[in-house]
Amino acid sequence: MPFPCERSPARPGWVYLVGAGPGDPELLTLRAARLLLEADVLVYDNLVSKEVLDCVPAQTERIYVGKKAANHALPQPGINALLVEQARRGKRVVRLKGGDPFIFGRGGEEVEELVRAGVPFEVVPGITAAAGIGAYAGIPLTHRDFAQACIFVTGHLKDGSVDLDWDMLARRKQTLVFYMGITQLAAICGQLVAHGLPATTPAAVVRRGTTRAQRVVTADLATLPDAVKAAGISPPALTIVGDVVGLQSRLAWFHPERE
Ligand SMILES: C[S@@+](CC[C@H](N)C(=O)[O-])C[C@H]1O[C@@H](n2cnc3c(N)ncnc32)[C@H](O)[C@@H]1O
Questions:
Q1: CA-CA distance, 7 to 33, in Å (whole number)?
Q2: Whose Cα sits closest to atom 10 in ligand 1?
Q3: H-helix segments, the chain
Q4: Which of 23, 63, 70, 141 could hold 211 in an S-S bridge, CB 3.0 to 4.6 Å?
Q5: Whose CA is nearest to atom 18 of ligand 1?
Q6: Dist CA 94 CA 18 (whole Å)
């Protein structure tokens, strides 16, 4: 692959915190693709798609540290220690994370540890799920007629609850994107309506967006939880709320199920 700019190759003893994007491997940045080819060791988790992993050379050492909700393959302090240890062995370490490492990715915690340990690092941004899914599902996250702001929200707190500023979230003319919110969907929709958003506000859930397994369920705040349950949608899925979702049926262009 030609690289259009002079960037340094992956260096021994460095950790590269790389965003893998939402799933489609063609959404990797050029920097990410290059580092995946040059890494000695790849540390990755369950949000990284199989299609992206298929871009990594077979001889690269792979360490899975995946997490699924409360079921952590390796707790965060263990991941932090592993990155430091691999770098100190002189490896070129790629820590690959779904989407963007600094958006609900605990990338900040890992970098803090690298700074503490004096390990050199680079952070490579990735396309976050909201941007990738907005594009592939046909939902522009902002639109002059419908939304002048877009808010990324976690639908899952450390203790399993959802404790958010509902008055701020329930304002009109903005788009809400809930990461990790699928298990709390009924509570989220209920709170938004209780705090003033019309029950008819368009809303969507998108599972495994940008991949061949992408599924999109659209409804409104009143009916979305039942529609998602009926469709059998499980994580990873993103919830988008706002009038921009009303454009989805006209703007959708990616239909892997039809191919
Ligand atoms: C721990 S967060 C990580 C977010 C990631 N760092 C990013 O920037 O996209 C995981 C959540 O991201 C969302 N997500 C990530 N990739 C997704 C995809 N391809 N389709 C749907 N949701 C996705 C889901 O809400 C999932 O529960």
A1: 13
A2: 180
A3: 30-38, 50-53, 76-88, 107-117, 129-137, 166-169, 185-194, 224-231, 248-251
A4: 23
A5: 208
A6: 7
Ligand 1 center–CA 129 separation, angstroms: 5
Q: Centre a 10 Å sphere on the Cβ of residue 112 and count the other Cβ atoms it contains.
A: 11
Residue type, 21: G
CA of 78 to the centre of ligand 1 (A): 22
Here the tokens at position 150 are 């877009």
Please report, for residues 33, 161, 185, 190, 243, the alpha-carbon distance to residue 169 in angstroms, rounded to integers and kept in the order given.
36, 17, 15, 12, 14
Tell how far the Cα of 42 is from the centroid of ligand 1, in angstroms: 20
The burial class, CB within 10 Å (0-12 / 13-18 / 19+), for 1 is: exposed
pLDDT (tens digit, 0 to 9) for every residue of the chain, 259 residues total? 555 566 789 999 999 999 999 999 999 999 999 999 999 999 999 899 999 999 999 999 999 998 654 555 688 899 999 999 999 999 999 999 999 999 999 999 999 999 999 999 999 999 999 999 999 999 999 999 999 999 999 987 656 667 899 999 999 999 999 999 898 999 999 999 999 999 999 999 999 999 999 999 999 999 999 999 999 999 999 999 999 999 999 999 999 877 7
104 touches 133 (CB < 8 A): no
What CA–CA distance (Å, rounded) separates 148 from 126?
24
Residue type, 144: R
